[in-house]
Amino acid sequence: MTAVPGRSARLSPNQLQKQEQIVEAARVVLARDGLAGCTVRAIADAGPLTKSAIHYYFADIDVLIDRAMAAHITTFIADLRKISAKHDHPSERLFAALEAFLDEFSGRPNAAFLWFEYWIAAGRAQHPQAIDVMLTSITELLAELLAPLDVEDPRARARALLSYLLGAIVQQRVRRRPFAALRGDIEALCFANYG
């Protein structure tokens, strides 16, 4: 799952647009069919370009999957930012984003499976950078939301909070709990004084 160096640098604006259309089609397929279903044929069927065009722009399907997953995360984080920005108080911003985070996965369980499948595949392919980029971008958002709340070491709390959220995603598949029930756990994790 490594990028083809320099391929996009030589593309015209029209070609870059076609490449983005392929990435968008891959996002659709990943969301619908998961990692195993994300084949060149499925991507071609979901988008406006042929299998040949997909092979031209992405010689390696893993590069395309990396780009599509990165696009998923970018959109997801942008949506969380929009949701949190609707609130005035920093704690309201944090909890609105966290509730939206968990709602995304309870409303679309395939999204959780996709994330975990992707991380397993990237790990097996000895490509932990893809996982790190995803986790870092979410951790940065959480640290930004925690910083105005005057918590000790917002980055460390953000990492712990992300670990909690990932576990909660799995637990919610087994036994659904409303966000209000999880909020107490989150408050303890974020605001407890360990000093």
Please summarize what this structure is.
The chain is mainly alpha-helical and 195 residues long. The protein contains nine helices and no strands.
Quickly list its features.
0% strand, HTH-type_TetR-like_transc_reg, 75% helix, mainly alpha, HTH_TetR, Tet_transcr_reg_TetR-rel_C_sf
Structure characterization notes:
There is one protein chain. This protein is an all-alpha fold. The protein contains nine helices and no strands. Helix 1 (13-33) packs across helix 2. The radius of gyration is 19 Å and the shape is elongated. The model is unreliable at 1-6 (pLDDT under 50).
Helix content: over 70%
Task: Compute the separation of the termini in Å.
Answer: 42 Å
Cα Rg: 19 Å
Number of helices: 9
Structural class by sheet pairing and helices: mainly alpha
Q: Shape from CA axes?
A: elongated
List the helices and strands and how they pair.
Elements: H1 13-33, H2 40-46, H3 51-57, H4 61-85, H5 90-107, H6 109-124, H7 128-146, H8 154-174, H9 179-191
Helix pairs in contact: 1-2, 1-4, 4-5, 4-7, 5-6, 5-8, 6-7, 7-8
